[in-house]
Amino acid sequence: MSREQHLQRVLDCGIVAIVRFSDPGPLVEVVKALAAGGVTVAEVTFTVPNALEVIRQAKREIGDRVLLGAGTVLDPETARSAILAGAEFIVAPTINLEVIKLCRRYDKLVMPGAFTPTEVLSAWEAGADIVKVFPADVLGPAFFKALRGPLPQVKLMPTGGVDLSTASEFLKAGAVCLGVGGQLVEPKAVASGDFARITHLAKQYVEIVRVTKAISTG
Predict the structure, then answer these.
(1) Which of 69, 144, 199, 213 has a C-alpha 20 to 30 A away from that of 49?
(2) How far is CA 127 from CA 100, 110, 160, in A?
(3) ∠ CA(210), CA(166), CA(122), 5° rounding?
(4) Cα–Cα distance for residue pair 137/16, rounded to 1 Å
(5) Helix pair angle (51-62, 27-36), 10° resolution
(6) Which helix (H) or strand (E) holds 83?
(7) Could you give the residue numbers annotated as active site?
């Protein structure tokens, strides 16, 4: 699939699950649990020990059922390693122009992080497919609504502070998708192997996205 098709898949899902845990052992099962709940886009962060092996294993076992990416990518060397391991998109907490350039070279989605309007526009002009606004809990949904005026063309994804109570508000304010970490991939559930809990949460987020989109288009 092309980068454009992968982008549409992210937009259709509306959720990018952030898979982060100190023990990489259960994380492939976490990705499977997310998919069972309808969240079919997930990033494995490079704060996870042996993140590359988690990506490789998930890719082998799950295939194309989940659009798998790598997160917390800080440099082009890490981005390239992730892509070669099977990552279809790259997410970063900051803007690194070389990371964006490399993703374009490999025809992969790239979602760099930004905080201010200047950073948001800089990331977009550099070639970002989606700009990750982080930490979004500091700014809140009002920030996204305000940016829609001067920058309606920029696709924004809040990360940090997105939970079941705020998800709909971020979408209504103009976010094209939501980056959700510990409020979806609950550390307690991962530690205890309660993958049913993660599937249950995934279904709730998917339903919020569905209902909110239906209202906005209806």
Answers:
(1) 199
(2) 6, 8, 23
(3) 90
(4) 16
(5) 40
(6) helix 76-85
(7) 43, 132
Give me the phi and psi of 183, to 5 degrees please: -80, -10
Asked whether the predicted pLDDT for residue 218 surpasses 80, the reply is no
Backbone angles phi, psi at 169, to 5 degrees: -65, -40
**Smallest Cα–Cα separation from 116: which of 102, 91, 99, 95?**
95
Q: Which residue has the tokens 């309808």?
A: 38
**Which single residue is written with the structure tokens 């990552």?**
87
Alpha-carbon span 207 to 38, nearest angstrom: 9
pLDDT digits (tens, 9 = 90+) for 180-196: 999 999 999 999 999 99
Over residues 107-163, the pLDDT tens digits come to 999 999 999 999 999 999 999 999 999 999 999 999 999 999 999 999 999 999 999
Which tokens belong to 163?
């939970």
Q: What is the pTM of this model?
A: 0.97
Closest CA to 56 of 44, 47, 39: 44
Question: What span, in angstroms and rounded, lies between the C-alpha atoms of 67 and 177?
Answer: 14
Measured from the Cβ of residue 107, the count of other Cβ atoms closer than 10 Å reads 13
> 67-71 and 41-45 as β-strands: parallel, antiparallel, unpaired?
parallel
**What phi and psi, each to the nearest 5 degrees, are found at residue 125?**
-65, -25
Average pLDDT of every residue of the chain: 97
